Amino acid sequence: MGARSCLVVFLASVLIIITLPSSVLGRQYKQLAAIHVTNLMPKGSGPMQIRCKSSYTDYGMHQVGEGDEYQCGVRERAVYYCMATLGRQMASWHAFQPRRDGSGKAVYWMLKDDGIFLSWDNSSWVRKSVWETD
Ligand SMILES: *[C@@H]1O[C@H](CO)[C@@H](O)[C@H](O)[C@H]1NC(C)=O
Hints:
Blueprint: H1 3-28, E1 33-39, E2 48-53, E3 58-64, E4 69-74, E5 80-86, E6 89-96, H2 98-101, E7 106-112, E8 115-119, E9 126-129, E10 132-133
Parallel strand pairs: 1-7
Antiparallel strand pairs: 1-4, 2-3, 2-5, 5-6, 6-10, 7-8, 8-9
The structure holds 2-acetamido-2-deoxy-beta-D-glucopyranose (NAG).
2-acetamido-2-deoxy-beta-D-glucopyranose binds at residues 36, 122.
C-alpha cells in the first residue's frame, strides 16, 4: 500500500470513529413519546409546581398556571415519574411506563381537584392517583 492510500484508509477510519458515537447518541435521544400534564385545579388555586424525571433524565421543576399545560419528552424506554405540588397538596405518579404506554406517541395527564387522570387520546380519562396532604 502506498503512502497515499494508507492516508485514505486512516482518514476513513477516523471519520467512522467520529461519526459512529454521535449517531448512537442521536438514536438514544430520539423522542419516543410526549407527556402532557394539564393543570385543571379549581379557579383561584394558583400555579402548581411540576417535575418529571426518569433515572436518566430530569426535566427539573416547572411552574404551571391554572388551565396551562406542561409538556416533556420520553427519551428512553424507562419509567418516568411526575410530581406536582400545590400549597400543602402533593401528588406523584408514573407518567410514562414502557409496558403500559410504549405503543402510543402521547400520554395525557389531567390534574384535577379529585385526582390525577390518564388518557391516551386526550378524551377518555381514568383516575390513577389522588392528592395527598402532609
Ligand atoms: C387536549 O384537549 C384539550 C381540551 O379539548 C385541549 O385544550 C388541549 O389543547 C388538548 N391537548 C393537546 C396536546 O392536544
